[in-house]
Design a protein that fits this description.
Blueprint lengths: L1 H5 L2 H13 L5 H20 L28 H17 L4 E4 L3 H7 L5 E5 L10 E5 L12 E7 L18 H12 E13 L4 E3 L3 E3 L2 H7 L4 E9 L2 E3 L9 E8 L2
Parallel strand pairs: 1-2, 1-4, 2-3, 4-5
Antiparallel strand pairs: 5-10, 6-7, 8-9, 8-10
């Protein structure tokens, strides 16, 4: 039935328009971009056809919001993922372990360093170099002082807020922090990132945000090796409390 309906051109057109208009942009912009799209469609249709490809109306797949002058990117994930990967490559561990970070980042890291990903939710894709271990950051499946290289990027701020199906717990971050410290080996490296702000806050149910002082207090048994801060599109070396919300990147070592 789906294939049959796709062959009805007017229905296909209406579905295309419906999908496009389910968007945050205003109606005027949507109509303007849709006009550009069909203008390009007609121009290409009138050019000499490449016989290697079928070019049919029912196969339209419009992406009308991509004609922009800059590369679209989330600066937080760009900076924190490249920072974390760079630290791991620099220290060259035999095996790296991660708790709850983005699978995309870990898939890339695993191509250079054998990597184990720990998460409460199963990973439905796989590459040979990336191992998956189901587990909770509140009860990590490792012995005390066992892990030499460990990361948890944009994770501990979520624990206990229920966003990802976990139980509500006002002390979720503190409990997660204690587990990371527990399993980190002596002389081991820990890389974390968290939202930072001018005071400790809960943005329910997205995440918590922390002051620099509170993060350093949480990880007090460890030695701070490096700290970086993301504000807007910039990566800075200093915590700027008056800037308000940002993201802190921290490299700790157990001495």
């Amino acid at each position: 039935m789906k294939d049959f309906l796709k062959k009805i051109s007017i229905l296909k057109f209406l579905i295309i328009c419906f999908r496009i208009f389910k968007n945050k942009y205003g109606v005027f912009k949507k109509v303007t971009l849709l006009k550009v799209f069909f203008g390009d469609y007609n121009k290409l249709k009138n050019l000499k056809n490449n016989p290697e490809f079928k070019f049919k109306f029912e196969d339209l797949y419009p992406r009308i919001y991509d004609k922009i002058n800059t590369t679209p990117i989330d600066p937080i994930y760009f900076y924190q993922d490249t920072w974390c990967a760079g630290k791991i490559f620099e220290n060259k561990p035999e095996h790296h372990y991660d708790i709850g970070s983005k699978a995309e980042m870990l898939g890339i890291i695993s191509q250079f360093v054998a990597t184990t990903m720990v998460d409460i939710r199963p990973l439905e894709v796989s590459v040979p170099e990336l191992l998956f271990l189901k587990g909770s950051i509140l009860a990590l499946p490792f012995k005390n002082n066992e892990i030499d290289s460990l990361s948890s990027i944009c994770v501990i701020e979520h624990i206990g807020l229920g966003r990802y199906g976990d139980s509500l717990d006002p002390y979720g971050t503190e409990k997660a922090t204690r587990e990371l410290i527990r399993v980190l080996a002596f002389n081991g490296n820990l890389y974390i990132s968290v939202p930072i702000d001018d005071e400790n806050k809960i943005y329910f149910n997205a995440h918590r945000a922390f002051t620099r002082d509170y993060i350093l207090e949480l990880f007090k048994p460890l030695k701070l090796m490096e700290e970086r801060y993301i504000y807007g599109n910039n990566l800075d070396n200093k915590y700027l409390r008056n800037r308000g919300f940002g993201t802190g990147l921290y490299h700790f070592k157990k001495i």
